[in-house]
Amino acid sequence: MRRTVTTTPAIDIRGLRVIRGKHEVLHSLDLQVSAGSITGLLGPSGCGKTTLMRAIVGTQIVESGEVRVLGDLAGSVALRRRVGYVTQSPSVYGDLTVTRNVQYFGALYGKSGADVAAAVDAVGLSRYADRTAADLSGGQRGRVSLACALVASPDVLILDEPTVGLDPVLRVELWERFADLARSGTTLLVSSHVMDEADHCAELILMRDGHLLAQLTPDELRAKTRCERLEDAFLELIRTSPVGGEIS
């Protein structure tokens, strides 16, 4: 069923600061994520992508600022059935089969057996449906985690580097699945440190060292930097951006 897409941002972040120990991890971030779209969160490892995602789902202690998701404060009870989160490390039960893992999460949302099968098929694991998660590869366990999130049909889906360790064919298939979800009205925020995945996104949030460098479309990034390859464009953006500031 297609969701109604509005012009109101699905995610609205104002002045977000996160401090860990004596180190400021996120520096007064202001950004919005459009509803019913795929937004890429890109930057090198350690730039703050995962911390930002944890703040969006409400599991990160913040120093100051406000994060709203679908109009509610991040972490609100009202969002528990509306926001899905897939972490970098697979969150599955090793002694359960693929199907049983997805059934467990599906039962929390009243999903049917057909919904479970569809989620398993969407991540390319139908042939492994009866295999226990402990007997799968790391990449396959990551796909089980993704299926557990997909079965809930969340309005907002937060994906932390979901394609790491996957073969090229499956990566393409997953991005096609993400595009289908966006067309149905789901909002996806997908992190990656691989710039060649950026072309799958309607908009990009580019980060470095906890700062927001820019928020723009892939074509706008190319035009701004006069670089055709997005990896070259990102490197050029870093070179021309003021330290600790967003490029205009």
Automatic annotation (TrEMBL):
> Which SMART domains does this chain map to?
AAA (SM00382)
Q: Boundaries of each ABC transporter domain copy?
A: 11-234
GO molecular-function terms, A-Z: ATP binding; ATP hydrolysis activity
**SUPFAM superfamilies linked:** P-loop containing nucleoside triphosphate hydrolases
- Extract the PROSITE patterns matched here: ABC_TRANSPORTER_2
Which top-rank group of organisms is this from? Bacteria
Keyword Chaperone present in the record's keywords: the answer is no
Pfam families from the UniProt entry: ABC_tran (PF00005)
Keywords in alphabetical order, please.
ATP-binding, Nucleotide-binding
Tell me the protein's name: Putative ABC transporter ATP-binding protein
